[in-house]
Every structure is written in structure tokens, then in C-alpha cells.
From TrEMBL:
This is DUF2474 domain-containing protein. It comes from the Bacteria. InterPro entries: DUF2474 (IPR018895). The chain crosses the membrane at residues 12-32. Keywords: Membrane, Transmembrane, Transmembrane helix.
Amino acid sequence: MMNSPSRLKNLGWLVLLWCGGVTSLFILAYIIRIFMTMAGLKS
């Protein structure tokens, strides 16, 4: 009974999802900062 490959696959998917979430959060914060700067420059 070797269930480590499926466990490893699940862990890989978790890491992939986590990395994707963190990256999207950073991109979102960066875009918001750019919009704030643009709004500040306009007004």
C-alpha cells in the first residue's frame, strides 16, 4: 500500500495553488498602487 505518489501530487497542487494565490495578491496590490499613484497625479 503505497499512497505517497497521490499524496505528493495533492501536495504539489496545494503548493501550486498557494503560489498562484500569493502571486495574484502581489499583482493585485501592485495594480492598486499604480492606480492610486495615477489618481494622486491626476488630482
